[in-house]
Write a structure and sequence with these properties.
Number of strands: 20
InterPro entries: DAO_C, DAO_C_sf, FAD-dep_OxRdtase, FAD/NAD-bd_sf, G3P_DH_FAD-dep
Strand content: 15-25%
Family: Belongs to the FAD-dependent glycerol-3-phosphate dehydrogenase family.
CATH architecture of the largest domain: 2-Layer Sandwich
Helix content: 25-40%
Structural class: alpha+beta
Largest sheet: 10 strands, mixed
CATH class of the largest domain: Alpha Beta
Protein name: Glycerol-3-phosphate dehydrogenase
Cofactor: FAD
CATH superfamily of the largest domain: D-Amino Acid Oxidase, subunit A, domain 2
EC number: 1.1.5.3
Shape: globular
Radius of gyration: 23 Å
Length: about 500
Amino acid sequence: MKDFASSPISYDIVVIGGGINGVGIANDAVGRGLSVFLCEKDDLASHTSSASSKLIHGGLRYLEHKEFRLVREALAEREVLLNKAPHIIRPMRFIMPHQPHLRPAWLIRTGLFLYDHLGKREKLEGSKLINFNVDSSPLKVEITRGFEYSDCAVDDARLVVLNAMQAREKGAKIVTHTRCTSAQHENGEWLVDVENEQGAYQIKAKVLVNAAGPWVAQFIQQDLRLKSPYGIRLIQGSHIVVPKIYEGDKAFIMQNDDQRIVFAIPYLDEYTLIGTTDREYVGDPNHVEITDQEIDYLINVSNDHFKTQLSRADIRWTYSGVRPLCDDESDNPSAVTRDYTLSLSQEKPEDAPLLSVFGGKLTTYRKLAESVMLQLKAFFPEMQVSWTRAALLPGAEHFISADALAQEVVQKVQGVSAVLAIRWVHAYGTRVWQVLKDKTSTDELGQYFGHDLFAQEVDYLVDQEWAINSADILWRRSKLGLKFTPSEIQILDEYLIWLHQQRAQSAA
């Protein structure tokens, strides 16, 4: 039963979707003085935005498809984002083994020259040709040389959460597990219906932003009952995680006979992350799972390159997501543009506008948000100027280095290991002190769930980062899910149920 007794609150912008594009737009908008409401039907970053290769990169392979504008923008954004969030983003060197029968050396050198010079590069090293030592190289002995260049690794889900936190701190209303069920025009505004477990209610919006990712076209057609201006192609990308197959902190970018590339990336010190795939997806985006063919594909590409040979028994975890790409009618899923398309529409001149986001990638979310605000400028002439380029994300304030901050944590909190301190610092940056509050010993951190997870951190994630259940905490806020057993997860979920009950009683 809908409760519309109270008058709906009116916002300048209502954003549908809590992935990287949605929170990026909400954050940019509220920082310009606009009132913003964002709703996400599940958890923040629970779909495409946490199923990436966890890279901030220019997209070297996009050069082959002549996506020069996208690559230039992405290359410039690497350094911008590295400055904005150095605790969750770090430089990484990538090695491309040379396979002469796939791409000639001159072509790769040309691509890397463009990669080095298309975007402004201050902190990241340039590319170079390298020769492999047969004895020390993890690659097969027949692979004797390659190329090395720079990109960045990122904690993708935390990038989403930090943008949501910054938006909230500037005044945005961010709600999760809340679905927009419909919206219609009323007196020059959108009247928006939303619902969650507590019930249903209405809000109003001068502009509705559809950043629903894989559901962008479905939202227009089913919930708004309008015609989508573009088709959407869902391209599945899957990854496998295995015990690390080589030492060191560099990633590898492997060429394959089908002209695609696959990354092998150091992951959480103990593992190697291998992906991604590219295949057309036609199922429910809520339930994307790796296929047997994708598993075989990734294992075969790895085994073609590395001395350490993998089998299915080595796989510790798999994850899959769908990239919602604007349909450019390409026959090859790998060639579908990764660029974004913005569609601004009004049924009638007096109607409130709808802006829909098609496509996009993690690296360029901030520029996408700026493009959205540029399109909306005509509706909000009082809008303030762009501000996100130099603004630090939560945890980057006064951040000097991860090692220095981790050392400080170890000194101030008795019983904290160097490994735990580094994990905290890479997750929370200088906000680690807000997590710990005034605690000076691990004995004061509350219930221990195993694997260096204490109630103190869990409580913070519930209070400050929208965490509801164990999956939110173990797979998105932290990456501890690889370590937890089913029985340990059950204990954590029981604690979370109790914690939410306590919060509800306090609020009553």
